[in-house]
């Protein structure tokens, strides 16, 4: 459990991920540099000891001379002492006839005689089950039998070379490891300095009260300025949303108290007086008003919520308008009203939020029936190149031009109206959420409310 928690913390920590990534890069670099250092140390040790070995072979060749017609060697003690400090040294000297005149008979080198006459030849080999480095050279002696060329072979084991290689490589690898560790520590310190402003921003947010949604006071670094700006913007929208909901709750509370108080008064009259049918009708009316208000309050809250996160889908406006009209007109009215529906002949399938559109249109139709239409009500769908409009027309008194913009605000009522003042506000907010508008046209006897939205509003909310 602890290991999985640690792994999860590492995956979600930007600092840890950066440290691991940089550490991995440094580790790979250190391995590559260590291999290169080892190769360089091996080459340097081989070259140094090859020069000593070649010099020893040359010194041996220089100490060969003729005595009584026989090739003789005066061994160079200084050369042997230098080469045998850490290693075993083997040599062989042969005269022009191939007779071994000094050294080990079985020591040989696989190199042509012509190459030896041109200079020192170096080869790797194995002698007496030990890896050795072999140097060979030939020297021409005046008066020697045959062609006069004597061959000198000198071999040395590899202990000193390996020791020097390890010494040079270990020091270089140690330096690489120290520099890599220092670079990782420096990276950790730099990350701490880099993330310090974010830590201070976090501390500022943590210290805030729940109701403090003001912008972050600290000036952020340029690289995270957009992120902090987005946080500030979110807090501003959240503050506006909270303020809006608080105002809505306060208004809703105030609006609910009025019909409840009226119902209470009517009930008192029914208790104290004779059961009057008119009083019962009033009570039924108050209860209907309360039900309508409660429904509109819930609808308004839903519309405000959906406006912040619209859910668009393919919607047939013709079908939707016809369905809402059939469901919104009551079976009986207190007056004779002719209701008609005129669909659009063009394609009216667009991307829209069908739920909020249904609520908006239902409120417009209810307003027209309750406060407008005397004898006629018509719902018409119009399709243009850039937009689709739903027009609710009636032959009622209409709305005065100076009051039209006022009535699209929540809880604003017209003169003599007994409604809640939410119907037009709901429709206006739905139109705005779709990138459209709610407009009024005409006057008494020929009044219409035009609900217009773009034909392709989906792209506005991607």
Could you explain how this protein is built, in words?
The chain has helices at residues 2-12, 14-62, 77-83, 113-118, 159-207, 225-272, 277-308, 317-328, 354-372, 401-407, 423-433, and strands spanning 64-67, 70-73, 89-94, 100-103, 121-127, 130-140, 149-157, 313-316, 338-342, 349-352, 376-383, 387-394, 437-443, 446-454. The chain is of the alpha+beta class and 462 residues long. It has a five-stranded antiparallel beta sheet. It is built from eleven helices and 14 strands.
Distance between the termini: 41 Å
Gross morphology is rod-shaped
Number of strands: 14
User: What oligomeric state do the depicted chains represent?
Assistant: single chain
Question: Which strand order spans the largest sheet, edge to edge or round the barrel?
Answer: 4-3-7-6-5
Q: How much helix is in the residues? A: 40-55%
Q: What is the domain total for the residues?
A: 3
Name the CATH architecture of the largest domain: 2-Layer Sandwich
The top-level CATH class of the largest domain is Alpha Beta
Order of helices and strands: HHEEHEEHEEEHHHEHEEHEEHHEE
* Class by alpha and beta content: alpha+beta
**What share of residues are in beta strands?**
15-25%
User: What name does CATH use for the topology of the largest domain?
Assistant: Heat Shock Protein 90
Mean pLDDT: 80
> Main β-sheet, in a few words?
5 strands, antiparallel
Specify Rg, calculated over alpha carbons.
51 Å
Number of H- or I-type helical stretches: 11
CATH superfamily of the largest domain: Histidine kinase-like ATPase, C-terminal domain
Stretches with pLDDT under 50, minimum 5 residues: 457-462
Organism: Bradyrhizobium denitrificans
Catalytic activity: ATP + protein L-histidine = ADP + protein N-phospho-L-histidine
EC number: 2.7.13.3
Subcellular location: Membrane
């Amino acid at each position: 459990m602890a290991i999985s928690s640690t792994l999860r913390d590492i995956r979600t920590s930007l600092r840890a991920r950066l440290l691991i990534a940089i550490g991995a890069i440094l580790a790979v670099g250190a391995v590559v540099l260590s291999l290169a250092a080892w190769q360089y140390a091996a080459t340097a040790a081989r070259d140094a000891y090859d020069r000593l070995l070649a010099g020893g072979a040359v010194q041996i060749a220089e100490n060969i001379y003729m005595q009584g017609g026989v090739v003789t060697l005066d061994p160079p003690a200084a050369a042997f002492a230098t080469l045998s400090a850490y290693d075993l040294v083997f040599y062989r000297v042969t005269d022009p006839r191939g007779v071994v005149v000094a050294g080990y008979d079985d020591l040989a080198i696989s190199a042509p005689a012509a190459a030896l006459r041109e200079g020192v030849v170096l080869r790797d080999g194995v002698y007496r089950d030990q890896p050795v480095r072999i140097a060979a050279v030939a020297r021409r002696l005046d008066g020697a039998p045959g062609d006069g060329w004597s061959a000198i072979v000198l071999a040395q084991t590899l202990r000193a070379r390996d020791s020097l290689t390890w010494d040079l490589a270990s020091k270089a690898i140690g330096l690489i490891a120290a520099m890599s560790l220092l670079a990782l520590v420096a990276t950790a310190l730099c990350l701490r300095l880099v993330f310090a402003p974010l830590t201070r921003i976090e501390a500022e947010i943590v210290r805030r009260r729940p109701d403090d949604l003001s912008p972050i006071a600290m000036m952020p670094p340029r690289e995270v300025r957009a992120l902090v700006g987005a946080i500030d913007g979110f807090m501003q929208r959240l503050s506006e949303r909270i303020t809006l909901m608080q105002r809505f709750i306060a208004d809703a509370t105030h609006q609910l108290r009025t019909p409840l108080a009226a119902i209470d008064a009517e009930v008192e009259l029914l208790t104290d007086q004779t059961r009057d049918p008119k009083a019962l009708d009033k009570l039924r009316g108050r209860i209907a008003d309360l039900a309508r208000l409660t429904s509109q309050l819930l609808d308004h809250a839903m519309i405000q919520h959906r406006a912040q996160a619209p859910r668009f889908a393919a919607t047939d406006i013709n079908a939707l308008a016809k369905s809402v009209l059939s469901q919104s007109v009551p079976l009986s009215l207190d007056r004779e009203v002719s209701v008609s529906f005129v669909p659009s002949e063009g394609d009216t399938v667009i991307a829209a939020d069908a739920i909020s559109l249904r609520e908006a249109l239902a409120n417009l139709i209810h307003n027209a029936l309750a406060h407008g239409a005397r004898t006629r009500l018509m719902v018409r769908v119009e399709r243009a190149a850039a937009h689709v409009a739903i027009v609710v027309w009636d032959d009622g008194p209409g709305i005065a031009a100076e009051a039209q913009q006022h009535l699209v605000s929540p809880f604003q009522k017209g003169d003599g109206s007994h409604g809640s003042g939410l119907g037009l506000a709901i429709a206006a907010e739905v139109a705005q959420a779709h990138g459209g508008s709610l407009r009024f046209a005409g006057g008494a006897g020929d009044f219409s409310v035009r609900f217009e939205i773009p034909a392709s509003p989906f792209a506005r909310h991607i």
